[in-house]
């Protein structure tokens, strides 16, 4: 492990569910504060950090879609949910770490936050600010994982991290199959062909075609993010070419 971070700029994808902690719905302040402090450590080590957050803790489209709701309307509601989460993260980062944060939204909602402007996002990162990308890609039919892959590529991140509840990618669901084993590394093509379920195929193909290295790790482990950015490969599963 070197004393210098192994990555200069990372994009961290958090699911909306990650923010609700034990609550079952909404946003848990202890969780956002924990995440803010994990992020603070890596920013202070000199790493530029961008975030993409989902919205499933506030709104899930499937039940309404099953009941007949228009898919596009449902997806737009989901995008608005991610804006709420992004604002909560911005607040937690600024209040509990003293870092600066900026939310940029893929849909225009100027009274609330900035629009997504790639060059401005990069400028914020260079100034040590945490940039939270909200509203997914701004389009229906795309997941926040696809948004994360897209933004990671656009800002020239060295690594995209996907924070999950398990410490990497397994041969099968470790909660259901005790014989499942964790991969240290896997190629994009293996992840795609074996349908390992870590991200949707659109997001995975975007990463593959643009050589965006991905690390899937357990966000609940204190210090794991820091270890990963310092180059410790014993945490998580890496997906690359
Ligand atoms: P630099 O001056 O370039 O270093 O960046 P800055 O973000 O500090 O300056 P800017 O003048 O762009 O923004 C000042 C504050 O206004 C920041 O908190 C921004 O997030 C916020 N801000 C900038 N543009 C918008 C916008 O379109 N909508 C909203 N709601 N806030 C904005």
Automatic annotation (TrEMBL):
Signal peptide from the UniProt entry: none
Residues annotated as binding UMP are 55, 75, 137-144
Per UniProt, activity regulation is: Allosterically activated by GTP. Inhibited by UTP.
Could you tell me where this protein is found in the cell? Cytoplasm
Catalysis: reaction(s): UMP + ATP = UDP + ADP
Q: Where is this chain primarily localised?
A: cytoplasm
Gene3D superfamilies noted in UniProt = Acetylglutamate kinase-like (3.40.1160.10)
Which amino acids does the record list as binding ATP? 13-16, 56, 60, 164, 170, 173
CDD domains attached to this UniProt entry? AAK_UMPK-PyrH-Ec (cd04254)
User: Residues in domain Aspartate/glutamate/uridylate kinase?
Assistant: 8-216
> Molecular function (GO) terms listed?
ATP binding; UMP kinase activity
Where does it sit, as one GO cellular component term? cytosol
GO BP of this protein: 'de novo' CTP biosynthetic process; UDP biosynthetic process
Which keywords label this protein?
Allosteric enzyme, ATP-binding, Cytoplasm, Kinase, Nucleotide-binding, Pyrimidine biosynthesis, Transferase
Q: In which pathway does it act?
A: Pyrimidine metabolism; CTP biosynthesis via de novo pathway; UDP from UMP (UMPK route): step 1/1
Which residue intervals make up region (Involved in allosteric activation by GTP)? 21-26
Q: Which Enzyme Commission number(s) are on file for it?
A: 2.7.4.22
Q: What SUPFAM superfamilies is this protein classified in?
A: Carbamate kinase-like
> Which NCBIfam families does this one have?
pyrH_bact
| Function as written in the Swiss-Prot or TrEMBL entry | Catalyzes the reversible phosphorylation of UMP to UDP.
Q: Could you describe the subunit structure of this protein?
A: Homohexamer.
Family matches, as HAMAP family:
PyrH_B (MF_01220_B)
What is the designated name of this protein?
Uridylate kinase
